[in-house]
Amino acid sequence: MKDLLKRIKLNEQNISMGLGLVVVLLVVGLLYNYFKSVNKKGEVTSTSTIAKVEEPTAGNEYVVVAEDSLWKIAEKAYGSGYNWADIYVANKATLDAHPDLLYVGTKLTLPKIEVKQPVSYTVSPGDNLWNIAVKTCNNGYAWVKTANENKLANPNLLLPGQMLKITCN
Question: Minimal CA–CA distance to 110: which of 67, 69, 57?
Fold first, then answer.
């Protein structure tokens, strides 16, 4: 065995050369696979087939696909992930009190949500955006939309008497 190792001469230079060759071969293989998957128009083509999924819309039934969450479905259907709670309430019996566990193929009902007209709210001492959103929209998560609509630089700083425009959806 010692004779074999002496003949191979495993020194640092030879080991580095071997590892460098392995890296070059990996890079060439990756580049080959990449350029093989790019068609002549420069678009990447996929070798896997993905079933066309209809975009979820309010008032329809939606079938859960891989990597879905109530948040993602609500973003697509209503434009806001915060409406995940509306989907959950409409499908409580189906989801068995586990909104974070969705199984591929599960059919969900997407409720029609009435878009409310903007209202004006006068800030009282001790108010914060969460409490205001709960009072006006019955949804504390609506505070983000209120902060954005009113262009609040610091959502934690509300002054008594300040007027806020609030839109619930």
Answer: 57
Entry pTM: 0.44
Phi, psi of 112 (to 5 degrees): -80, 130
- In the chain, DSSP assigns E strands to 61-63, 107-109, 119-122, 163-166
Residues 6+ apart with CB under 8 A from 65: 51, 53, 104
With beta carbons less than 8 A apart as the criterion, state whether 98 and 92 touch.
no
31 is written with which tokens? 């580049």
**Distance between CA 55 and CA 98 in Å, rounded?**
23
Query: How far is 83 from 145, CA to CA, in rounded Å?
Result: 12
The answer for residues whose C-beta is within 8 angstroms of residue 110's C-beta and 6 or more apart is 56, 57, 58, 59, 60, 61, 62, 73, 77, 87, 90
Task: Report the DSSP pairing between strands 107-109 and 119-122.
Answer: unpaired
Sign, Cα dihedral of 96, 116, 57, 75: negative
The length of the chain in residues reads: 169
DSSP H or E run through 137: helix 129-137
- Each residue's pLDDT tens digit, 1-43: 666 656 666 677 777 888 898 999 988 988 887 777 665 444 4
Query: In angstroms, rounded to a whole number, what is the distance separating the alpha carbons of residues 121 and 136?
Result: 9
